[in-house]
Amino acid sequence: MSKYSRPIPCPGCQKLTHYAAVRTNIWQGDKLIVVEGIPAQMCETCAEQYYDPLISETLRCLLDDLSLATPVRVMEVPVYSLEGKVPDIPEAPEGAEREWEVEGEY
Q1: What is the 3-state secondary structure (H, E, C) of the chain?
Q2: pLDDT tens-digit profile of 9-26?
Q3: Which domains does the chain possess?
Q4: Chain segment 85-101, per-residue pLDDT in tens
Q5: Other C-beta atoms within 10 Å of 17: how many?
Q6: Distance between CA atoms of 56 and 47, rounded to whole angstroms?
């Protein structure tokens, strides 16, 4: 059994994680980089991903010098905008706080 496949308690919600080969999206300026096949522990409840320090360092090295890496494929990514489509949002009443949704909970 690999050390990447042993469940750990999620630091965020304390539920158990499971091994998954995950994908991450990283912006470098106006360039989107997608890295897949990353060994990680993923929380079964909140879907947070946790990387072993060696995996994090390997990912950092890859991103530091992409000129040494060869992409396994190139994807075309559609880009959408909400500009001009968002209604005016009224201010929260005096003394009340606006409720915000966590990214990904739509």
Answers
A1: CCCCCCCCECCCCCCEEEEEEEEEEEEECCEEEEEEEEEEEEECCCCCEECCHHHHHHHHHHHHCHHHCCCCCCCCCCCCCCCCCCCCCCCCCCCCCCCCCCCCCC
A2: 998 899 999 999 999 999
A3: 17-68 (3.10.20)
A4: 988 878 878 888 877 77
A5: 21
A6: 18
